[in-house]
Design a protein that fits this description.
This protein has two helices and two strands, in the order H-E-E-H. It is mainly alpha-helical and 84 residues long. A hairpin with a 2-residue loop joins strand 1 and strand 2. The radius of gyration is 20 Å and the shape is elongated. It is found in: Membrane.
Length: 84
């Protein structure tokens, strides 16, 4: 292995937790980017020049983010019969 015997447990602990934190962080970042993308796609349509049809508040964007996150978690947790 790459690590000396005295450092194997510490190195594997750091590597494991870095993987978990990175996995959670990238998942949440992609979900937040997707919610911003959805709002941007909706606001392509304008009610007046320069004003989108959906003027969102921060809590509305957060609720969209939560809905996307819950949907992704439900698909991965309950969708085994449909996923390959």
């Amino acid at each position: 292995m790459l690590a000396p015997a005295s450092w194997r447990r510490v190195a594997s602990w750091i590597c494991g937790w870095a993987y978990v934190v990175g996995n959670i962080t990238i998942t949440l970042a992609v979900n937040f980017g997707t919610s911003l993308f959805f709002v941007g796609c909706i606001n392509v349509f304008e009610s007046e020049p320069g004003v989108g049809i959906f003027q969102y508040e921060n809590y509305q964007l957060y609720l969209i983010f939560l809905a996307i996150t819950i949907l992704c978690n439900l698909v991965s947790a309950l969708g085994n019969r449909w996923l390959p």
